[in-house]
Each structure stands twice: as structure tokens, then as C-alpha cells.
# Entry
Amino acid sequence: MPETDGMMKARDFVNQVLPAALEMMKGKTRNLDCVVGLHLLGDDGGKWTLRIHQGEVAVEEGMTDYWDCALSIPAEDYVAMAAGSLSPYQAMAKGKIGVSGNLGLAAKLRFLFRV
# Structure
């Protein structure tokens, strides 16, 4: 998979790794029915829509106008969280994660950051 300086690019991670990881985490998505906007900021960023319905998750490039919760984070920090070198709690404490919409749902989505 494409990497830069030993780190996978955020766009490649979201498009290639995240869908497969979410498929393996059906237990965590089984009781969710929501649309999540994901906005990764910076040069390697982009926007995605995650549609979660009864354990099935679709990851689509581009962000829909309707979402239950939207998360924004610098692309490099998203990759660091996915790799385990930055915890979601550390990122929140440093003000790196922006959340819009349903905050309760956002708390249930921690699994998106550690795959």
C-alpha cells in the first residue's frame, strides 16, 4: 500500500484499509444506523461519507449534505490514531478532532480511529 516515509497516506488508508477493517468490526456497528461525515484536513486529506446500517458499512468518497455526525481531523493525526501512536483522547484534549452533530454518536465511533 502507498506510504510516505513509512506512514500510509490518509487517503489510501480511508479508501483501502478502513472498509476492510470495518467489515471485520461488525460487532461494533451492528446496533448503529447512521450517516457519518469524515473530513480529513491537509494535503493528504479529503471528505468521505460512512453509511452504517445494521452492521453493514459503506465508505464513499465525498461528504453528503445529510449526516448524523461529522468528524474533522488533520489527515496525519488520523493516520497516527489508526496506527496507535496517538489516542483519540489525546487528540481530543489537544483540540485536533472537531465534532458536529450528534455528540453521543461521536462517542460511540471511537472504533473508527483505531483499526
